[in-house]
Write a structure and sequence with these properties.
Elements: E1 9-11, H1 19-24, E2 29-32, H2 48-59, E3 63-67, H3 73-81, E4 85-87, H4 96-105, E5 112-116, H5 119-129, E6 132-136, H6 144-159
Parallel strand pairs: 1-6, 2-3, 2-5, 3-4, 5-6
Length: 167
């Protein structure tokens, strides 16, 4: 598939993506990055708005699977507590975890979407697998490395600026 660092869509936050848009685009499997997309690195508790949004998406009949590069148990614990499926050690931007997710659910790229906060892992991984990508702003860049990564992503975010999802 294509090697592109530009997301199909952009949003300020995961909760700004209306489930109607997902339904309208034929999405039946929503893959979500975990850290800084659903919750910050510093906590395992979603905000009430995030918890409500996850429930709303599931109520629309869309299956959710967290696809994370993390090797920490906190992802599995979170997913179990919130009734979500998960794949850890995904190795994004490589195809391994994304393909594993699609195979697990019997889906093809045209019925999937991946949302994450990083261009060089989430967006690139989704694009390489032919899955629509949505880039959201990181919830909290709490250290210098995350801030530097954000600076490196600025040109690509600027190029994709017109792809913003309207609230």
């Amino acid at each position: 598939m294509s090697f592109s660092l530009l997301p199909k869509f952009m949003a300020d936050a995961l909760t700004d993506i209306p489930p109607d848009l997902l339904v309208e685009r034929g999405v039946t499997l929503l893959m979500l990055d975990f850290d800084n997309t659903i919750v910050p690195y510093t906590t395992d508790e979603p905000t009430p708005l995030m918890a409500a949004w996850l429930a709303w998406v599931k109520d629309c009949g869309i299956r959710i699977c967290v696809v994370s590069n993390s090797k920490k148990d906190r992802v599995k614990v979170f997913c179990k507590a919130h009734g979500l499926h998960c794949i850890t050690h995904a190795r994004k931007p490589f195809r391994k975890g994304i393909r594993e997710c699609m195979e697990r659910f019997g889906e093809t790229p045209d019925t999937c979407m991946l949302v994450g906060d990083q261009i060089f892992t989430d967006t690139l991984g989704a694009n390489r697998c032919g899955v629509e990508s949505v880039l959201v702003k990181a919830i909290h860049n709490h250290n210098i490395w995350l801030k530097l990564r954000g600076v490196l992503e600025l040109p690509f975010r600027a190029m994709a600026g017109k792809r913003r999802i309207k609230k």
